[in-house]
UniProtKB/TrEMBL annotation:
Name of the protein: Glycosyltransferase
SUPFAM superfamilies per the UniProt record, alphabetical: Nucleotide-diphospho-sugar transferases (SSF53448)
Domain of life: Bacteria
CDD domains per the UniProt record, alphabetical: Beta4Glucosyltransferase
Residues in Glycosyltransferase 2-like domain copies: 2-121
Length: 286
């Protein structure tokens, strides 16, 4: 899924050349994203969000002309490492033992691959007939965007973890990194204040469910996030990049907390529920 990703798209597509079909779902890029993707034999599909549900990931499931039952979601700033592709081949040669698979990510920050500090897992490989991205009642979030937020799809069946990892390497600047996280924190503040962040239908590893429940009850989440990344997860061993990444995580949760306070103040002054001002009635796209 792309919009103005000419810095990233070529290496992303090169990393999935072994796969049977590659779709690039593009939201009106004004740069060379679509042209590069077409040159690399990807099928470019235009997408224009109507501001309602489904958002982009679910729209892909419902509208792309797949000839395969299984799909893998790869962001433009991500790469499928050869060992991950080989592991997927082995899974399908033996016959999948689950309906979905989590993949871990190695994160590049300040041009360094972080080995510690924070590990992200996403459920990105699944049988499209058994997976669905949930509606999170987040259309009223400030600076809302077209892609589903930081949550996993619902899988009808068992989900397992692959051992090999994806690489997350964004060639945009630090400015763009903080700009994105400013939008993400708007979204998270809205869903947190509504109590919607922990949807029991969302597929998650059991340990992750417990961690999220504990984290949600803690005060000073920004401080907890820093200590978790830099101390508990040994981020200090990644040098100055590990410190800056842990501090950036703290800043993100600090943003979420003060934005929640702002939403509560607005709610106290207005009879309209927080995060819902200006929201139009939900219409399910066909």
């Amino acid at each position: 899924m792309t919009k103005n990703e000419e810095k990233n798209i070529a290496k992303c597509i090169h990393s999935v050349q072994l796969f049977d079909e590659v779709f690039v779902v593009d939201s009106g890029s004004s740069d060379n994203t679509a042209a590069i993707a077409e040159q690399l034999n990807a099928l470019v599909v235009p997408f224009e969000w109507n501001g309602m549900y489904p958002k982009k990931k679910q729209w892909c499931l419902e509208n792309l002309p797949f000839r395969n039952d299984w799909v893998l979601y790869v962001d433009a700033d991500e790469e499928v490492r050869p060992e991950l592709a080989e592991e997927m081949m082995r899974v399908f040669q033996a016959g999948p033992q689950a309906m979905g698979y989590f993949v871990g990510y190695d994160y590049v920050f300040m041009n360094k691959v972080l080995r510690r500090g924070h590990q992200v897992y996403k459920l990105v490989l699944f049988n499209r007939h058994h997976g669905k991205f949930l509606d999170y009642d987040d259309l009223g979030a400030s600076n809302m965007w077209e892609v589903e937020g930081h949550y996993q799809p619902e899988i009808a069946g068992k989900a397992q973890l692959l051992q090999s990892k994806m690489l997350h390497f964004d060639h945009d600047s630090i400015f763009d990194y903080f700009s994105r996280h400013n939008r993400y924190s708007d979204w998270e503040a809205t869903v947190r204040i509504k109590g919607l962040l922990d949807n029991p239908k969302e597929s998650q590893p059991y340990i992750r469910v417990l961690q999220k429940k504990l984290f949600n009850k803690l005060p000073l989440k920004w401080l907890t996030a820093f200590l978790h990344s830099y101390v508990f997860k040994l981020g200090f061993l990644d040098g100055k990049e590990g410190f800056h990444f842990a501090f950036a995580r703290a800043v993100y949760y600090w943003q979420v907390e003060i934005k929640i306070s702002e939403l509560k103040r607005r709610s106290a002054r207005s009879p309209v529920s927080p995060g819902l001002a200006g929201k139009t009635p939900e219409v399910k796209a066909q």
